[in-house]
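Async update (no meeting this week)

Hi team, since we skipped the sync, here's where things stand on the single-chain job. The sequence we agreed to prioritize is pasted below, unchanged from the tracker. I ran it this morning and attached the output directly underneath so nobody has to dig for it. Comments welcome in thread, and please keep replies under the output.
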Amino acid sequence: MSVSPSDHPIRPVVTIFESYGSGADLVGSRVADTLGVAFHPQAFSSEQIEESPEQRDDEGLLARVFAAMGDSYAALDGPAVAMVQRDDHELVLRNTRWVTDAAGAGAVIVGRNGALILATWPGALHVRLDAAVPWRVEQAARTNGITMDRAAKRQRREDDLRADMSIRLYGWDPREPTGYDLVLNPGSLSLDACVDVIVHASRVKAASAA
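Output:
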């Protein structure tokens, strides 16, 4: 499900999908500052995903997404599952509308299935960040001020969960490299180098679409 603008002028648009701990927030926010557009992090933080089902607001968006994905995430059964599964279409429409609205103003968007939704958006650059697991776990622990053990648990959960969300709701696997213009390894390039490469590539792609 991809969309393209009709009357929007071309403004910088970058989507980023990361494997957990690859530094998308740090890289994305700096790219956005350099390009002069808004930065939008993941729809759901690691802290939100980490909450137990008992802590979640059953009416909240994340609870509805988990419920749509099935019992293993929702911790619901019977009529509750039947009811929330009807939300699938609404969840997709809501997210797609949000992403296209953000892109219309120019943006750096992390996650949210942006690479799929904006696949045909003129000038949009689509980036995947990935690195070796040990580097990602250490980077996440240091950046978020958490223990290595907690970061490792998040990595194991989120690498699967965030991909599963896309597969379940949009029918695509965001780990497939062919959906991106760039696949960068911040563990070998450095976060600073990733910022420089993305900014340059965004400008080149936007200019080619002008």
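Quick observations from my side:
Residues 13-45+106-209 form a domain with the Rossmann fold fold (CATH 3.40.50.300).
The first strand starts at residue 13 and ends at 18.
Reply here if anything looks off.
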